[in-house]
Prior knowledge:
The complex is a heterodimer of chains A (86) and B (183).
Chain A: H1 3-20, H2 41-55, H3 61-64, H4 70-85
Chain B: E1 32-34, E2 37-42, H1 57-76, E3 79-89, E4 99-105, E5 115-124, E6 129-140, H2 142-146, H3 153-164
Amino acid sequence: MTTAADGILRQxxxxxxxxxxxxxxxxxxxxxxxxxxxxxxxxxxxVVARAEQTWDIELDDEDVFTxxxxxxxxxxxxxxxxxRAA
Amino acid sequence: xxxxxxxxxxxADYRCFGCSPHNPHGIALEFDEHPAGLQTTFDLGRxxxxxxxxxxxxxxxxxxxxTMGNLIVVRTGLVAFxxxxxxxxxxxxxxxxxxxxxxxxxxxxxxxSPLISATAEIVDADGVPVATASAxxxxxxxxxxxxxxxxxxxxxxxxxxxxxxxxxxxxxxDGPVPVEETL
Lengths: 86, 183
């Protein structure tokens, strides 16, 4: 994993922690987003919206509703950044 | 917070559904400067609902489009036509409650390009986001816009004058982004 990719995972972790009001230290790359205490569809959409604002990207709805972990969300963000840069 | 001078205000009878105070069927948005761009606070009643008690999502598109579009107009002094807009709905927006939409100019606009991007976010009274939007606009010089909108000659002259004197902050340090007349 590159440093930039590490940075995306770290920022995603911080966004998830902030929007779901949980400590960032409690989250791992494979943490199931829907299993986090307090997580619901509205809060998870806010995570997605914050990610889109942070990187000025638009994620596909298909991805938004199928990602299940912090790492998977970081992956779709990386892919969106690659598409934008292409 | 100061209210920017919208050039449309010189038209005594302009009927913009989003921002005219003269349209009884419109939502008469009023705008204020915001540190990041432009903002409007709105409270839509049941005439604008979809499901009972929920503001129609299309109206939220109007609010975002109005806020982003007018931000571009007051920053560039040019008419801006919406090219595309995408909304993400995060939570239902309730009728009869106050929300605020904040629009920001997008990053990465190429100098000289007629295309300019913007984003908007609608938050509730507690600052919690309920919808986001991103859009692309096409800046059009008045001569071109004049052919595409319906104006009397005196109104056209007034609007042209108002746009010319809009205190454009622009997205470039050198003033309004130059746009070719042949769009």
